[in-house]
Amino acid sequence: MKFKMKKLFIMLCLIAGISLTGFAQKFAMVDMEYIMKNIPAYESANEQLNLISKKWQTEVESRMQEVQKMYKNYQTELVFLTDDLKVKRENEIVTKEKAAQELKRTYFGPEGELFKKRQSLMKPIQDEIYTAIQEISKDKDLSLVFDKSSAMSIIFASPALDVSDLILNKLGYSK
Known about the structure:
mainly alpha, 71% helix
């Protein structure tokens, strides 16, 4: 009787093992940094964003320097100013500083002009890449695709799992 129970148990384990292998998931990874660097439109958009960012940064810094200059002049002339003039100058400085901070927020804030510009330039490229990843995932019956350039918890991944070149080929940017 014990022998039959053992045999039945082993048989059930084999059947379970065979059926579970049918549900095995396939994984792959991509290197988004590598993909982006090999797409000329991305590099061009990145350069454009850097130029705009530098221009706006210079403008904000110029306004802040004006505020600092006004404050230094105020400190120098402080002993000669009446109370009314002191208040007037302080208000001018504060108003100018607030305007500079507002300009900075307008350009670089979470919903600022730089964010909007990045969205308008990068989103079409990212959507194209995402579509290519979806198509390749469907073709290769992949369940999950990791981005190895941003996944800090991946210590090692086999290069055989990397489908980045397939994505570039699909997009027409073969190496």
